[in-house]
Every structure is written in structure tokens, then in C-alpha cells.
Amino acid sequence: MKTFPLRIGTPDGLLFEGEVERVVARSITGDLAILAGHSNFCTALGMGEAHVVLPEGTRREAACIGGMLSMIDGSCSLLATTWEWKEDIDAERASAAKKRAEEKLARTGLTDREYRIAEAKLKRALVRLSVKQ
Ligand code: ATP
What's the total number of domains in the chain? Predict the structure, then answer.
């Protein structure tokens, strides 16, 4: 299968640079898959499971939480707010974050801001747990 160059970065630095067969991530309008030869394209990323398929067929899974993806002249750049490879996700930490967020959301009298923060924390924890499964 044809490959293309991919760079994955976060504000902390470059996490991946190399040839891949495919990158799959969740954009703000739904899941997307980029293959070699994709037309020029740019989108904002949402929160969800992502993966890359390496040239020998190995699939590496990750949690991707926000950012931008672009495909320009055959080269793909994914700048994520947070990108965690499956093996780097701490499931106990995500479970604890999920529990804290659920407890917060069950309270009454939360401000809109508190509610939105707890909801976002719950979503991030659920994405991490689902990648880790
Ligand atoms: P927590 O309440 O556990 O901090 P959070 O969703 O608020 O969770 P973030 O603000 O999204 O955490 O992330 C802060 C930093 O911690 C980021 O660098 C992120 O990659 C890392 N991180 C958060 N949760 C985990 C986890 N379960 N496993 C590995 N890294 C994590």
C-alpha cells in the first residue's frame, strides 16, 4: 500500500515523524481517514480514538483530544492539543478522573462553567479508557 509522510506534534513537542499508510482521527465533523493521495485538506480535530497504520501494517492507537490536521501536497501534519499513545495512557488515572467528573456532574447547583469543565473531563476520561480497552 502507498505511504505518505506524517508528523504528529503537541505543544510538548514532536511525538511521531515517519511514513504511514493511514491516519484516522475524529474531526469536529466526524471520523476521518487520510490515505496517500488525499487532496489538500485542513480540519479542526475533536476528541476521540485515533490510530496510525505503519508501512508494515502495525496499527498504533491513541487518544486524540483537539487540535488541527492538515494534508498539504501529500504531507500530513497533525498538531494535537493532547495526543496519548495507548501504551502511555494510565487507565487508573483515567478511571479516577471519570469518577471525579461523574460525582461533580451529579451535584446540584453547578455553574455553567463548572458543568462544562466536568463534562469535558468526563469525555477525555472516556476516550482514554476506550483506547486503553
Ligand atoms: P486528570 O484529572 O487526570 O489530570 P484531565 O483530563 O484533566 O485528567 P488533561 O488536562 O487532559 O487531564 O491532561 C493534562 C496532562 O496529563 C496531559 O499532558 C495529558 O496527556 C496527561 N494525562 C491526563 N490523563 C492521563 C492519563 N490517564 N494517562 C496518561 N496521561 C494523562
Answer: 2
Q: Whose CA is nearest to atom 18 of ligand 1?
A: 82
For residue 10, the CA-to-ligand 1 centroid distance in Å is 13
123 lies in which domain range?
Answer: 90-132
**CA-82 nearest atom, ligand 1:** 20
Alpha helices (H) in 7-111, listed in sequence order: 91-106
Same domain, 53 and 19: yes
Please state the rounded mean pLDDT for residues 65-77.
97
Residue 22's pLDDT is: 98
**Which residues, judged by CB distance below 6 Å to any ligand atom, belong to the binding site of ligand 1?**
82, 84, 88-90, 93-94, 97, 121, 124, 128
Across-strand partners of 7?
Answer: 17, 77
Q: Domain with 121 in it: what CATH number?
A: 1.20.5.440
The span from the CA of 119 to the CA of 20, in Å, is 34
Nearest-CA residue for atom 24 of ligand 1:
94
3-state class (DSSP) for residue 132: helix
* Shared domain check, 81 and 94: no
Tens-digit pLDDT profile for residues 34-70: 999 999 999 999 999 999 999 999 999 999 999 999 9
